[in-house]
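User: Hey, quick favor. My workstation is busy. Could you predict this chain's structure for me?
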Amino acid sequence: MPGEKEPKVGVGAPAPEQCAAEMIFHGHRSAWCLSPHGPMCRHALRFGKAWICVHPQRERIAARTLERKTRGEHSSPGLAA
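Assistant: No problem, here it is.
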């Protein structure tokens, strides 16, 4: 909807309170999974000791995570700074 600050993530996306991601670097479509639920997520790939988010809407998930971090919301352990 117009005026909303938090990006919408479509049907089938993980619940906001359980999912967090951060883009690996600007201009690249890969994202780090910041969720403690990453090992159980069908959209997470193991990469060494970390998890990469391959959800089709990972860019929106990362934008939502960044917005939440900017506002100081840390409801998910993966969001803690």
